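Database export, one record per block. Field names are fixed; values are copied verbatim from the stored entry.
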Amino acid sequence: MAKQTTVVVYDDLDGSEGASTVPFAYRGAGYEIDLSPANQAKFGAVLAPYIVAARKVSRVAASADRRTSTTPARRRRDLAAIRAWAREHGLEVSDRGRVPIEVQRAYDAAH
């Protein structure tokens, strides 16, 4: 029996289909939002004058504030540590996939 799984990403602002994830950072905190192409264009237009006037920061410098490396292997190791810590403290986390931001923040606060 053949199966097909379809993942539909919805825009976090207007609920429209066909969105994709847009990562961004503000005041030292990283964020992600799912936006349709139209809302991505609006987001980019709002940020454009600030980006033009800003200084670009390397990923290495930006990650130093979070005490993590940007390499995929390092991220996997960090997530494994976060999952282990969460389980030790009675928090529910899945074996795979995203670790909830609340769990990540609790881990960061404890370390």
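Remark 1: The radius of gyration is 17 Å.
Remark 2: The first helix runs from residue 37 to 53.
End of record.
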